[in-house]
Amino acid sequence: MNQPSHKLEFSIALLSASVIGYQLALMQILSIQQWHYMAFMVISIALLGFGTSGTLLAIFKDKLLQDFDKYYTLLLLFTAISMLISPLLTGTKWLLFDTYLLFSDLSHILRLLGTCVLYFIPFLWAATAIGMSFTYGSYKVGKLYFANLVGSGLGGIFMVLAMWVILPQHLSVFCATMPLIGAGIYRYAKGNIKYFYPILSACIIMMAVNLFFAPTVKSSQFKGFSKTMNLPDAKVTWQQNSPFGLVQQVASPAIRYAPSVSLLNTNPIPYANMVFVNGDAAGYLTLDSTRNIFPVLNYSPQTLAYRLKPRPKNLVLQSGTGEPAHLPMLHPSNSITCIESNPLLHKISKSRLSTRETKPELYFINTNTRSFLKHDQQQYDVILFPTVGSFYGTTGLYALEEQNWLTVEAFSEAWEHLSPDGVLSVSCWLDYPYRNSYKLVATLDDILAAKAKETSDHLMAVKNWNQLSFLVKRTPFTKLEYQAARLFCDSLLFDFMSFDQEVDEAMDPIHELNDPMFTAYLKKLTSPQKTALYHSYPFKIRPATDNKPYFSHFIKLGSLSEISKIYKLNSLPYFELGYYIALVTLLLITLLGIIFIILPLILVGKTSFKSSVFLYFSAIGLGYMITEMSLIHQFNIYFSNPTYTIAIIIGILLISSGLGSYFSKYSLFMRHLWAAPLIVSGLLIILAILNPIVINSTISYVLVYKIAIVFVFIGSIGFFMGIPFPSAILKLSHSKQNQIPTAWAINGLLSVIATPLAVILSMEFGFSILFTIASASYLMASIFVNLLLKSIMS
Fold this sequence. Notes:
alpha/beta, 28 helices
């Protein structure tokens, strides 16, 4: 095989980098168009493309390999062109779907399918080129697999950097240029120079067209940004992209700021600008340096913390644009510490508030809530948590979000930062059926059960027409504080609630609710009877934990029939839209995987199935992706941003796996194929035990140190995870080369299924179950090796 030295590997690395970068670009585009939970769907679509490529290779292998150079170059060109065109087409009015309408409008289901197909095509071309190179150069598959994995890892890192300077609508051209360059270099190395300059020219033209004519990414009509842009004279006054999302500031004379204020408020509702991240509201901004926005907050339930006694030292968690810090600024305060993980929001709040010359002292820290709580040594008189839920409702869109700041562990850590007389203040928007308020009070009761003697002595609540606010005190509330709280509520027409089980106190004499059991259930969740309510209530209201940090996941699969009877079947999806889409994605991806990957192989009969090949490559495919997804989920709290987490974990895992594959040909593992899967299985058990320890002890480190720690920690297991696939492929190449495409397809199919499956399993059973499944998969792979070797020998 007369092929250029290392030029194939280099072009494979560029192609692989573009594939991972394109995945991250699509994730951000879908986060703007729809919601962030669509990210796992992109991973599934990409893996479906890789699985389907194995089927194509099994059917057309002989034809493709006869003129490898020609078809390999064409596939790279097709990849580049489709990467550029697909996002443009899916953003048109004919294909742009809306998540909210999937269960009520058939056309949006068809649009979703069309979008999936267009996103699928670039991955199919790229995967076919990669898989074809593995077959063509099977004698050096370790080096090719190394180039594939290392290129993928570096692609994720480059895309994260690109997001700081490139707007979402232009990210695809950044990805498309890499396979174009790879094709040009490969053809140039083959001595066919005439292809190089046309390809380079096409690359420059495509970049120019995209930069000048690509439309902005359009948000769903139901997102806050789209609704706000419908207001009179609404316009975007500033925007900047980053891995944390697209931040946009919107101005309109119709925007007002009135956060759950009392009906007795007599202050004018002030004008404000709004800030959005990926189309979701992130906060308000005052229009000038005056205090005209502040008096309104004195009429909100959260003010109770400052009416009981002075709170000189304040901590504001997830401060966003700085808006929550206005509340302590209204009252006698010496210092306010604002914590925000999004660097752009952090920059906005700091620039808007730090210019004030009067007290209090303001401190702005750009880190995530959990990292700060774990390493900070100070105590505070009040800790303000972000409000749970949304004024407009969410239809369960946050069900897939890992809300690590609302777990039992998060509140427990915050408790340790309270001064002897300090309070935690946390509010939630009232939803119906009631879920947020029930889960929140159950969480607070768990904390008080562990930290205090009696919940009722340390917990009180205030409710107005649309919000419920809880106040948790480190020491028992005094009689004077109870009296002050009741006077505060009476003066603003709020409803006060104590959690004394012996006091039959009506919760809603002023603001009546739909459910007369609301008060009784809240109190029951702070009593020994709460376990019984966990089982009988149709929704999940057990507190979220770091193992299952899905605070907004409420659906019980066993209660679906009961819920459908009460609230009608057609409304069922809108209680938890995100979770149902995860289930639908699992079913759809599994079906498409069977149709596109398995069925053609059976019908065409170009290759025969070997049970040993199916079992072995199924096990390592499932094990690899379950491991990858479990690491992404667990380290999301560590890196505080999904894009960072995905890029770093995938990058490190693929680079280390690439190193393992590079050395697989020369290692002892070629003689003992069972050893590498067995080592991975054991390391995964150790990883499951050590992960929480490593995360908790190093979460406060700066990003560079975190990446180094994770590289050593995860890279060690990634090295061994990179050995089983190329080692087995090399064995097959000796006498069963026709089985290589089949192995590639089967590995892809199980990887496709593993992605949405891992999401659902983590929601239902926690992250720990994922490591168990992954470890079991690699253990089975080590057992199936004997069957594989017997098949090869026969």
